[in-house]
From TrEMBL:
Function summary: Catalyzes the formation of the alpha-1,6-glucosidic linkages in glycogen by scission of a 1,4-alpha-linked oligosaccharide from growing alpha-1,4-glucan chains and the subsequent attachment of the oligosaccharide to the alpha-1,6 position.
Enzyme Commission number: 2.4.1.18
Keyword ATP-binding: no
InterPro entries with a match to the protein in the record: A-amylase/branching_C, Branching_enzy, GH, GH13_cat_dom, GlgB, GlgB_N, GlgB_N_E_set_prok, Glyco_hydro_13_N
Pfam families assigned to the protein according to its UniProt record, in alphabetical order: Alpha-amylase, Alpha-amylase_C, CBM_48, GlgB_N
SUPFAM superfamilies assigned to the protein according to its UniProt record, in alphabetical order: (Trans)glycosidases, E set domains, Glycosyl hydrolase domain
Protein name: 1,4-alpha-glucan branching enzyme GlgB
Residues annotated as domain Glycosyl hydrolase family 13 catalytic: 257-613
Associated pathway: Glycan biosynthesis; glycogen biosynthesis
Broad enzyme group: transferase
Keywords: Carbohydrate metabolism, Glycogen biosynthesis, Glycogen metabolism, Glycosyltransferase, Transferase
Amino acid sequence: MSTNKLGQSSTRQLPEFLTSDALADLNAGAHNAPFDVLGPHKSGNRRWITAFQPGAVEVAATVAGKQTPLSRIDGDVFSGPVSGKAYTLTMRYADGSVHTIQDPFAFSPVLTDFDRYLVGEGTHKELWRVLGAHVVRHQGVEGVHFAVWAPNARRVSVVGDFNHWDGRRNPMRPAGDTGVWEVFLPEVGEGALYKYEILGADGSFALKADPVGFGSQHPPEKASIVRDIKGYGWKDQGWMKTRAARSDRASAISIYEVHLGSWRRRYDDGGRPLSYKELARDLVSYVRFMGFTHIELLPVSEFPFDGSWGYQPVGLYAPTIRFGPPHEFRDFVEAAHAADIGVLLDWVPGHFPTDDHGLAHFDGTSLYEHADPREGFHQDWNTLIYNYGRREVKNYLVANALYWMEEYHLDGLRVDAVASMLYRDYSRNDGEWVPNKDGGRENYEAIAFLQEMNVAVYGADPSVMTVAEESTSFPAVSQPVHTGGLGFGYKWNMGWMNDTLRYMEKDPIYRQHDHHLMTFPIDWAFTENFILPISHDEVVHGKGSMIGKMPGTEWEKFANLRAYYAFMWMQPGKKLLFMGCEFAQPEEWNHNAELNWTVADLPAHKGVQHLVRDLNALYRDTPALHVNDCRPEGFAWLKNDAAQSTMGFARFGVANDVPIVVMCNFTPVERLDFRVGVPEPGYWEEVLNTDAAIYGGGNRGNLGGTDTAGVAADGHAQSIALTLPPLAVVVLRLRREAGK
């Protein structure tokens, strides 16, 4: 017994698939295979169309202009025999309104068997092309294909404005045994808001953002947004052809680290941050003026909490909407490339936040994270840790790394918090962690993931770079995977940063006792391909600004900072400096406000800025200062005098490259007639002096340079006598005759 469309009793024989259980599940929104019931299905010799349309008074199917009413079978389920194939559904509602749609249940699956195989195997390197929301033309109809991995869910639906956020209306179909659910929704398009409503394995309902969504609402709103990211039309082919040389160990790499939300703000427009398009104009031109070779962005993958600076991402595949839509982020990258500047992204595969709309407990189980909090909960950040041993999770992350390179032409990834991934006992006490299968602390699964990621990234395009923020002595971080390394291109030299800053923070009278802090780091300087980092982490959380760390009077503070920057730029290793440090911002960095650009126009601050620009130019234009950044052949000590807090060293390139001599004086005492041995005879031209008046110094120096004398010193047959200004670094370059 059933009821017809007018609610009257009907004795019509129902098809076998319309069981009482199926009808109950459809009305409850709990059917786990709705495509087995809804849409067109044959029963005997007849073709039935079944629709679930909450709120409809009448439903009819139209085929070739002929309308056939469907009977109300039970609740909001309508069904009836209809001849023909292509059809539309028309609903009439109690208020008299009428709505006609293409029936999503009339469309076949979009995912191919091969895609399903790769997803199930956890080896789909282009995962973003099959999961997420894609504007497509399917079976001759425009719409959006949605696909999400939720293997333990009882039911998954797409909800949005297009279906009144009712999870019963557009349930998805399982894609075989891959754990993926998919559906094609006709007439949905670019800009549509959506979430996934998931009936979890535990019986709970949850609304989740798309893990592979290309766009999101502006926080605190949480919905994903359909973004069509196809067909941008890149014009940076010239850059891409030369990128390999620019990321090579022998190249000059000087990185400007930026938090986009606080570099500059538009106080004439409510204090908002600059948009991607404004940054493409203003930030790119500034970085080019300053002579940096790369911009490194703090994370831009969508994140809910501004105070995390992006380090707690929810949408790994979505450039944050805070500054504009995805194509405008591409505009920014392309503008950088047009200015011969690379763009690196701070990438966070180490953990994710517990926000309800994110990955946490995604399908009613610990899907992306470990179930055991000793493995799956990060105590320092109150975040969850990826289960790197699960092939689908590893695939999700590896594909994300490839996605940023492929879709946004990024030039590299700086991988955040690598140390927290490598060790199971990271920041944990005894009893708070689970040993590996051999009883040790190394996280074998995370190590395998990092190796696979690096192999995949460099295999797809060897011209990019990956960089590890790794603070321990874990071996071979920047060595190839086939030799047992992690496979990164570069590693941050956190030890160098910590030691040298400890030295610089000391009153000069005490520095003689800690001279080793400046000299000892060279002992391991060539064990990895190092970047010397002065990052955002050094100017937050009560650490003070860079100028604030320096001891002494105001003049001495600036002199110390100028000397430190010159020491850093002349040392082996690539360079990284956080925004604001280049003009000695006096305050700690505040992510809620723009940099203190007002002080950048004051003489002392402008002097530091001018120095950093000149250091970049000297580093970039002098092979001896970068060709052997990662090779011991490029460095030699000349002089070390702990009692006087002076040190000197030489830098070398390859054959015929002019050598450089660097002398440092880290006391406020001027050293006159200071003799130092040099590697070759001739005239040594003073090419940089941090005490120059243009930088804010006292203009003491060597009158442009000096000739060698036949006086043996420091193991060399010739030497030069220098004036070493107080708290200063002097850089000299051998002037060779033409052809030598």
